[in-house]
């Protein structure tokens, strides 16, 4: 596998109030994913989950790209390795289960694994010229890293198959029309827009509520309505006993910002 000389620089971390900004930082490689970047990224996410002062996370890329996919040197090594389990990068799906809101600020190319990492975030902002694509079929690969589960649920089966089978590139406005991203903003305002959105979540929304809602949405993707409703009723009763419920109502009645409790580490 290829390794950067300074693994701690592969992802930069910056606090903006209650928001942690993580910047994939291999700009000379369009932030292509490798083992060092993965280890650093996941370590920072684990730290963010444990840090009660971090209430939301924004992920972006340095330079011209968000993430151009797996590093080609790694893919070349994997395609010739006898022991594939040892010879290929194995990104985990941990970001999908992070308990705090994750917002992708897609500043440029998000292709293959790079697109998947953006899909692991909860909300996606992008710029008009950003290039998004699956690429797998054009590399002789398959729908990797759970994208065959994620993409149809996000944009529908037909649209997902179009993007997966063709590997074609879509840009900002088409990505928005497909439902692949949530907002398209001017390049100069991308990070500020994503951080502003994350800051609003941090200021106005209960961390406990957002954690439970994220879990509900992902569980309910594979359940019937009756089962989802039964669990929601039980969770609603539990939420009434949480201090954030009383605080949320009081803040609304008193016309003041809420002072919700930080998310307790698990």
Task: Describe the protein.
- Pfam families: ECH_1.
- This is Enoyl-CoA hydratase-related protein.
- It comes from Actinomadura napierensis.
- The protein is of the alpha/beta class.
- It has 2 domains: 7-202, 2-enoyl-CoA Hydratase, Chain A, domain 1 (Alpha-Beta Complex); 206-253.
- Helices cover 45% and strands 15% of the residues.
- It has 11 helices and 10 strands.
- It has helices at residues 35-50, 72-80, 84-87, 113-120, 147-155, 157-166, 172-178, 190-204, 207-220, 225-240, 243-253; strands at residues 11-16, 19-24, 56-61, 65-67, 102-106, 109-111, 123-126, 131-133, 170-171, 183-184.
- It has a 6-stranded mixed beta sheet with strand order 1-2-3-5-7-10, sandwiched between helices.
- A hairpin with a 2-residue loop joins strand 1 and strand 2.
Task: Write the H/E string, N to C.
Answer: EEHEEHHEEHEEHHEHEHHHH
Query: So what's the overall shape?
Result: globular
Major sheet: 6 strands, mixed
What structural class do helix, strand and pairing data support? alpha/beta
The CATH class label of the largest domain is Alpha Beta
Strand-residue fraction?
15-25%
The poorly predicted ranges are 1-5, 86-91
The helix fraction, in percent, is 40-55%
User: How many separate helices?
Assistant: 11
The gist of it:
The protein has 266 residues and is of the alpha/beta class. The protein folds into 2 domains: 7-202, 2-enoyl-CoA Hydratase, Chain A, domain 1; 206-253. It contains 11 helices and 10 strands.
Topology:
Blueprint: E1 11-16, E2 19-24, H1 35-50, E3 56-61, E4 65-67, H2 72-80, H3 84-87, E5 102-106, E6 109-111, H4 113-120, E7 123-126, E8 131-133, H5 147-155, H6 157-166, E9 170-171, H7 172-178, E10 183-184, H8 190-204, H9 207-220, H10 225-240, H11 243-253
Parallel strand pairs: 2-3, 3-5, 4-6, 5-7, 6-8, 7-10
Antiparallel strand pairs: 1-2, 8-9
Helix pairs in contact: 5-6, 9-10
Family: Belongs to the enoyl-CoA hydratase/isomerase family.
Protein name: Enoyl-CoA hydratase-related protein
Pfam families: ECH_1 (PF00378)
